[in-house]
Amino acid sequence: MTEIRGGQSVGLASLHPSPPSPPKCIRTREVVTKRGTGSGLIVPSHTRKCISSRTDPQSGHVYLGHLRFATSSRNLRSECHPHEWGKRTWCKVWSYSPLHPGSSTCTWTSRRTWHGCVLTHNGDFNGLRLYDGLVPQSSLANYLNNVLRTNVEVGSDSAKIAGWFELMATKGSWLKSCRKGWAMGVAKHENDVCGGRDLSTSTEGNTSPGPRTLKSWEEGFEEVWDDWRGKVVGGNAKDGLGDFEIEVWKLFSSSKQRFNILRWEDFQIKSFISTTITSFLTSDLMSTMSSFLRVASGSFGLAVSSGVECDAVVLAALGQPMSVSWSPNCPAVLYGSEANAVKVPVTRDGRGLDFMYDLDDHYGEAVRVGKDNGNGFWEEVCFGEGNTAVGGARTPVKVDVGGGVMLFDNLSGMQELNEVVEKWKRVEGVEDIATGDIVGKDIDDIPGVIKEVAREWAKTRSDCKDVADDFFYLLADSIRRHNKQDLEGHRGIDILVTGIESSLWLGEQFAADLHMVFPGVRVECVSSNKLLGALEEVPRMVHFCGYNRIRGDEIRRDRPVVLCISQSGQTFATLHCTRQLLSLLASCDTDSRGNVFILTGQKESKMRDAIMEGGAGIRRCMHNHSGVRLAEPSTVAVCAMHATLSEFLLMLCQYASLTPFPTKLAVGREDIIDFRDLLDDGMEGIKEIIEGDAGEKLRNQGIMWGKHITEPWRCMVLSGAYILATVISGYPLFYLVMVFPFGADSDALVYIARTLDALLYIFLPKLLSYLLRWWENRTLLARHGKRTLVICDVPYVQKNLENYVSKMFALSYSFLGLEVHGVEAHDDMVHRFTHRVARGVLMALGRPDGTVLSLMKTEQTIMLAAKQAAFVENMGVGPEIFTLGHNNVQSSIAVNHVCLKCFRRKFLSESLYEAALNAQAGMGTFSSDEFETITTSIMDSMYTSAMKLGPAYPRSICAVGIIYAGEGRGALSSIYEEKTEEEIKAYERPHLGSDDYAEEILALTASKTSDTKEESNSMTTKKKSAISSILTPTYMGNKKIEIPTPATTSDMDKDPLKGSKHATPSLSLDARYSFAMKLPPNIRRKLDKCQPIEHLFESRVASFERYVGFLVTFHSMAKHASKPWLLPSWDISRSQSNLRVATTACPVSVEEDDYGEDFTIYEGSVDLDMSRHVIEENKKQLSVSTEGIGGGIDTAPFFPTSTVATEEEIEIGEVDYVGRKNSKSGGGGGGGDASEDSGRGLGGVMKRIQSLGQLSRL
Fold first, then answer.
1. Would you tell me the crossing angle of helices 463-484 and 636-657 to the nearest 10 degrees?
2. What is d(CA 65, CA 67) in angstroms, rounded to the nearest whole number?
């Protein structure tokens, strides 16, 4: 058994054929304890049960296991899978089999065996379309109890499916077939089993055939069968059946009293006989499964076996996944409702099975896996021409797979062998890593996975780039259509993003960033559950208060480009949303199913299959390279998804900047190049967070908070140890100190000692907690008891972290629990949590980098909210605040601050501020009137410096946004664009490696001093005061602020917001804010141009680095807390629900015919991209100056690729003055094209050059 998801209860049934004796079925079911594992519990339990039944546990032919995620009933043993309905019954069963093993002669033989079904079910069962209406599963139990003459009381919906199979799977048994013949051939309504009374309330008056009647019917059929069974043989079955049916008719019509059918009309007798004979010959598990899926309402992943077919299992999928794997040389076939479960290693050398087949869970498919019955009778009769009992003429595909024979039956129509073979997949094995600290292993994998994502997008052509090409062209078409149409004053949806949980939160951030760079685009991001439930009409519609419902006709009208995000690729809601959207868009006037795109964690997934079957094509499927991750707290999967969306956004921006895109692009081509650099710098920052000094500080912080959490239990253990020692020995502390040395002569002294010892026993845990806090240097007066953690950051960060931490503590003990909340600090944190602040509340605060102009006020606002919470104190103690960010200033309200190392270049606003400070230091003073001149001169100087060297000026020492410093003076193309050799030589600059060049670079980038130093020295004190009023705030409220002295190391720990403790101007947020407010309008306009790239830095890079930093901290915290004294450690990689992948309805369900409003079925298995004509048309309109590669836009001549992805370290001596490799040293990466090597230098890779490392910070 493979335990990947679910596991609140577990069951295992094994069927052991033992001819000539009847087969044995050993069924074991257990309810899993909170911290137990299903697989660890069921295997020894089942082994013991087999041994007690004198059965070899490994002798079974079929094993049906199930890990349950409860949906319809509680986790009781009676509700656990595998299910059987009632007690097993014994009956006579006929089979058509060889006379002896190896014989080619077959005959009908009978044996006495138990007749029942063992079944597992994943999904939801709502009811059956029986007779003339839908019988809900709640009433179906009464129906089955009546017709089967049982008294089963079970709440599970799956158990009723087992009862249905008990009624309908009757092949070979005349007794069971007669009962089915009455139920399906004579009864006309479900209430006929209870005399016409209401089935849902009736408990008495069973009018279905009783045991005596059924026995008499069986005897009647046996009488005729004894004479005719020799004529019903293989291919001649149809020839003998007609006469056999006539003989049975004669017997029953002439002996109505004997068979208790006096009130039956002739047509009822004929219907009864025909249904009984057909059931006897054809109603095996496979045909019963096919008929069940046609009449059942719900979603189903089924596995069923029986005592009659104990060497086979029938699998089915409809609305729920089901996969099968096998190898030609391995006598085993694996199945599972989780695709990755069948990929696990099964051999001694750690290899998995070779091939895999995913059942069609969209249209429905059944597969029989088992031994061949050695004849063609089953196929001939069960699927013979004109047999309407099983849905018409259809022959299943029969394939020998080594471990057994598979019979494939596609319920939607005919299926040929080549169609089955085309769906075979070569299994990509899953590494068995479910041991040790798998959460920590996932965190360690983050840098490598993100680098792999960058490498995928850095290729000239790749699968993801092909997807981006088509997405871009279809987006352009959607925008152009909506620009032309006046849709009742309401713009149509251009892009629709959907997902669940982490995928949704990442999608929301992506949608916000997409709208920021394309302001004219309407982007909607909706939960897949909301979309799935709201696309329907009453009564199937699920109403969500506060949600502006997106209707199906709106999607058909707008034909938006859709992005469906799911890490597993088979999340129930997102998978079915993908199918519904494909159906809705296929029913548009212009077939637009190609507008649906997906992003998953691995290449192969159910959503990819849905896209391929829907005809959208492979160029609609992206993946993030994170693969299968077994830890329930998501880490690397979230990081890989965010990194992929960042690369996707960057690629769309690049495409739009190179074409006449039909909407405004808020970022320039230079910003896009800077964005590429920022993403690369972010990758290095994440590596530092996990592997560097920052990671060590974060882990230490996590351990400190872990000690907070474990404090109650440690105090309890120490208290218990003290009580045991003193009570057993008879010498409590005060008695030992006050009475024992002097004897017990003084009664008063004894009573005083006992009183003090009693008080010590009462307050011992509290005293011990103070002692532990003092010893560990923690806050002494924090509140005792369970701790609360409040995570404050941007929405996608705090929501993912709230899930992450709560899942790691899901299995914690009561004394070691943690209450976790996530909130946005600069929105509603004050309103939601200040009234809940108590001493010792743990507050993790993510701070944006306030040194960046457009983020300055944001950080100030967040710190103000933190102070408002921090000042809610009792006994001088408030919440314990830990801050994390890129600003190196620690606030006095924080007990600890970890500054994340910056690898990025400074933004234009940062460079301007620091240059102004340098100017102030060099010139001494300047007036307010001179301030505008100075700042303008600085901006011009930075721009002119970059222009002076032209192509020789490396981008790594330029400020981000330097292009806007020279606005109105012509474009600064030299830093960002490729130049010809002639243009480069025209500059006549020294070689990069020469001393002259290095001096020139230093001269251009060093802090400038005024040429009129004498004038500066003679400035008056009044002018100095004026300069100070410009660069630093003078007042905070009514309190005057003194001008600070230059920064020292201790200044790093000062509060930039508290008036009496200002840091130096270079560190103070208030000083920067005052400086920005006094900038002249022309400078502000230039700096405002940098806002989009600054905001992209915060949302795609800085917040992402904070997220990874918190991952490291909280993992360390949970790992420390999960190993309590004297107790077994709990597994931080899972919760009790173990809902790693939600493949069942959670909670919005969908039925097999539930495809949305006015659904029109599309052709399946169409290997054709139906949107190619739209893409080709937009290619013509969005022409670029260079021809694309592989039909896409070639960005290489215009934009650099990721330097982190190429991993090229270029030495100075190997690079000429334009940043290209010398021809002697070989071509560039990716095929030798110079454009492929473009990085931080002009036209080529300019990886950080060590000799200029200090300059890059200037």
1. 60
2. 7
Which is it for the CA torsion 462, 463, 468, 471, positive or negative? positive
Return the structure tokens found at 345: 């290693």
User: By C-alpha distance, which of 1129, 1119, 1128 is closest to 441?
Assistant: 1119
Q: How far apart are CA 795 and CA 801, in angstroms?
A: 10
Where are the strands (E) in 418-534, listed by range?
Answer: 425-426, 495-499, 523-527
Element (H, E) at 895: strand 894-899
Residue whose token pair is 């009580």: 723
Residue type, 860: Q
C-alpha of 1167 from chain center? 28
> How far, in Å, CA of 848 to CA of 826, rounded?
11
Which tokens hold the place of 341? 């479960």
Q: Please give the single-letter amino acid code of residue 881.
A: I
For residues 1055 and 374, what is the distance between their CA atoms, to the nearest angstrom? 85
At residue 794, the 3 state secondary structure works out as coil
Tell me the CA distances in angstroms from 669 to 551, 656, 658, 971, 977, one per residue in order.
38, 9, 8, 11, 10
Residues facing residue 109 across a β-bridge: 95
Beta carbons within 8 Å of 459's beta carbon, 6+ residues apart: 465, 1230
Tokens of 1174: 């739209």
User: What's the rounded Cα separation, in Å, for the pair 1198 and 1208?
Assistant: 20
| CB distance 16 to 60 below 8 Å | yes
From the list 1249, 1238, 1215, the residue with the least C-alpha distance to 991 is 1215
- Which token pair is 979? 């130049």
For residue 161, give the 3-state DSSP assignment.
helix
| CA–CA dist 357, 783 (Å, integer) | 57
* Residue 678 near residue 1097 (C-beta atoms within 8 A): yes
The pairing of beta strand 312-318 with beta strand 365-370: antiparallel
User: What b/e sequence results for 329-367 when a residue is b if at least 16 CB atoms lie within 10 Å of its CB, and e otherwise?
Assistant: ebeebbbbbbbbbbbbebeeeeebbbbbbbbbbbbbbbb
Q: State how far the alpha carbon of 684 is from the alpha carbons of 236, 687, 705, 955, in Å.
A: 75, 5, 27, 18
| DSSP secondary structure string for all residues of 571-618 | -HHHHHHHHHHHHHHHTSSS--GGGEEEEESSSS-HHHHHHHHTT--G
Nearest to 174 by CA among 286, 107, 272, 105: 272
CA distance 618 to 596: 11
887 within 8 A of 899, measured Cβ to Cβ: yes
Contacts of residue 1069, defined as CB under 8 A and 6 or more positions apart, other chains included, come to 850, 856, 859, 860, 863, 887, 889, 1056, 1057
CA distance 429 to 343: 5
Cα distance between residue 201 and residue 203, in whole Å: 6
With beta carbons less than 8 A apart as the criterion, state whether 564 and 510 touch: no
What does pLDDT average to in each consecutive run of 10 residues of the chain (1258 residues)? 78 87 89 85 90 88 86 82 88 80 75 88 88 85 89 87 93 92 90 76 74 92 85 53 84 89 90 91 88 89 91 89 84 84 79 84 86 46 32 56 66 61 69 74 94 91 90 91 72 92 95 94 92 77 79 87 93 89 84 90 87 80 90 93 96 90 89 92 93 93 94 94 92 84 76 91 92 92 90 95 94 92 90 89 93 89 90 90 90 90 90 83 69 83 72 71 71 47 42 35 35 37 39 35 34 34 53 82 88 94 96 96 93 85 74 46 44 77 50 69 58 30 34 34 28 29
Q: Count other Cβ atoms within 10 Å, centred on residue 1021.
A: 8
For residues 248 and 221, give the distance between their C-alpha atoms in angstroms, rounded to a whole number.
7
Q: In this structure, which amino acid lies at residue 765?
A: P
> Coil, strand or helix: which one is 327?
coil
Contacts of 479 (CB under 8 A, 6+ apart): 494, 520, 521, 661, 662, 663
Task: Find the helix or strand (DSSP H, E) in which 135 lies.
Answer: strand 133-136
